[in-house]
Structures are given as C-alpha cells and as structure tokens.
Amino acid sequence: METDRELSFREELLEEIQQEILSLEGPALDEYLLALGMDPNDLLESFDAVFQDPEIAAKRRKFAAARQRSRESQAPLSASVLSFEPSKKREILAALTKRVDVTGDMTIAARNRRIESDDDLDSFLEACLRLGLIDESGKLKE
Q1: Cβ 138 vs Cβ 94: under 8 Å
Q2: Which region holds residue 68: left if phi is over 0, alpha if psi is between -120 and 50, else beta?
Q3: What is the pLDDT of residues 61-84, one digit of tens each?
Q4: Exposed, middle or buried by CB within 10 Å (0-12, 13-18, 19+), for 92?
Q5: CA-CA distances (angstroms) from residue 78 to 16, 70, 81, 122?
Q6: Would you say 106 and 100 are in contact if contact means Cβ atoms under 8 Å apart?
Q7: CA-CA distances (angstroms) from residue 125 to 3, 21, 52?
Q8: Burial class (CB in 10 A: 0-12, 13-18, 19+), 89
Q9: Whole-angstrom Cα distance, residue 93 to residue 89?
Q10: What 8-state DSSP symbol labels residue 36?
C-alpha cells in the first residue's frame, strides 16, 4: 500500500510527464516518448481504439438487438395472419391495395400487382407483417 508521501511523489512525477508531453510536438515528442519506452505509433493506435471500441460495441449491440427482434418476429407468424382463412387474407390484401392506391407509400410492383396463388398471398402478407405494415391480426398499421 502506498503512503501519502509515495502517492504525492507519483502524482508530481505524472504531472511533470504530462507537462513535458504537452509542451512537445512532432519528432521531439516522438523522441521523448521513445525515451520513456513508449512507441508513438502504438500510442496512436491505442488512442484510436479508445474511440473505435465503443462505436463498434454499440453497432454490435444494435445488430444483436435487430437479430433478436427478427427471431422473435419469426415465431408468431404461424399463429397470425398466415393461419387465417383465404377469404380473410384477401380482405387484408384488398385493404393494403386500397391504401397503396391512396397513399402511394408502397408498391406491389414486384408481383405486377397480382397475387396468383395462396402461396403468393401468404408470402406477400408475411412480408407486410415483417415490414410492420400490418399487425398479427391483419389490421393496417398507421
């Protein structure tokens, strides 16, 4: 355990080093750092990492959260819109088509505005559900 005198000496030494580093630039700073046993390039990389690590971690957390939401949204699909009777599914499609015609927010161009089979309809409704255009009960979301 450090005594008060040792702690004070350490603080003074660190203060002196900090003042010296702040007063130098360019090659003189590099020489001083090398004399202290520090590689200026390693210090620069460490400094950059201090800022990159939190940014990368935040992006990883965001990705993990999106992945989890994707997994959670996949589970209830079988018990949602896709399990409705075909007539109910066509009603939902009609409501979506009407909204598209009025708002122009979305197009059904990929299917040439046609749904030719029940599988096409399920695929389209599943996409709308995943995109958040409808909820699990088939109601349009605002």
Answers
A1: no
A2: alpha
A3: 877 777 777 666 655 554 578 888
A4: buried
A5: 68, 15, 8, 11
A6: yes
A7: 72, 64, 40
A8: buried
A9: 6
A10: T
- What is the C-alpha separation between 4 and 7, in angstroms, rounded? 5
Place of tokens 């709308």: 128
Residue with tokens 């201090």: 50
Confirm if 18 and 7 have CB atoms less than 8 A apart.
no
Q: How confident is residue 100, by pLDDT bands cut at 50, 70 and 90?
A: confident
Q: What six digits make up the tokens of 131? A: 């995109």
Residue type, 55: E
In one-letter notation, the amino acid at residue 92 is I
pTM for the full predicted model: 0.44
pLDDT in tens, 51-66: 777 777 777 787 777 7
Note whether 93 and 121 are within 8 A (CB). yes
Q: Computed over its alpha carbons, how large is the radius of gyration of the chain?
A: 31
